[in-house]
């Protein structure tokens, strides 16, 4: 892995008394791996890691994970076309 970033979005339910709670969260990790990396294996490893996630396993609402895995070459090519 050469880079990692994550954008997270949560949905909160607010009650009439001003209290509230989160009802769901979505993680959007973006992982960059070296060129030639088996990205299908990277997706599988990331899925397995999410299944063991301490945070996702500690809250009482669903935590979705919409991952993106790119090779360094794909990232470089996208910067060149921007």
Strand and helix map with partners:
Blueprint: E1 3-14, E2 20-33, H1 39-51, E3 63-65, E4 68-71, H2 72-80
Parallel strand pairs: 2-3, 2-4
Antiparallel strand pairs: 1-2
User: Uncertain regions: pLDDT < 50 for 5+ in a row?
Assistant: none
- Report strand %: 35-45%
CA-based shape: elongated
For the largest beta-sheet, the strand count, sense and barrel status come to: 4 strands, mixed
Fraction in helix: 25-40%
Question: Count the helices. How many?
Answer: 2
* Computed structural class: alpha/beta
The beta-strand count equals 4
CATH superfamily name?
K homology (KH) domain
Mean pLDDT across residues: 90
Integer-rounded radius of gyration: 16 Å
CATH topology: GMP Synthetase, Chain A, domain 3
* SSE pattern, N- to C-terminal: EEHEEH
Tally of discrete structural domains: 1
Beginning-to-end CA distance, first to last residue: 23 Å
CATH domain class name:
Alpha Beta
Fold and architecture overview:
The protein has 82 residues and is α/β, with parallel strands linked by helices. It has a single domain, classed as 2-Layer Sandwich (GMP Synthetase, Chain A, domain 3). Helix content is 27%, strand content 40%. It has helices at residues 39-51, 72-80, and strands spanning 3-14, 20-33, 63-65, 68-71. Strands 1, 2, 3 and 4 form a four-stranded mixed sheet that branches. The protein is elongated and about 55 Å long.
């Amino acid at each position: 892995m050469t880079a990692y970033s994550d954008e997270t979005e949560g949905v909160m339910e607010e009650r009439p008394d001003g209290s509230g709670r989160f009802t769901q969260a979505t993680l959007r990790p973006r992982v960059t791996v070296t060129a030639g990396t088996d990205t299908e294996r990277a997706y599988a490893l990331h899925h397995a890691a999410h299944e063991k996630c301490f945070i996702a396993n500690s809250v009482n609402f669903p935590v979705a994970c919409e991952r993106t895995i790119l090779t360094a070459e794909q990232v470089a090519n996208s910067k060149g076309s921007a």
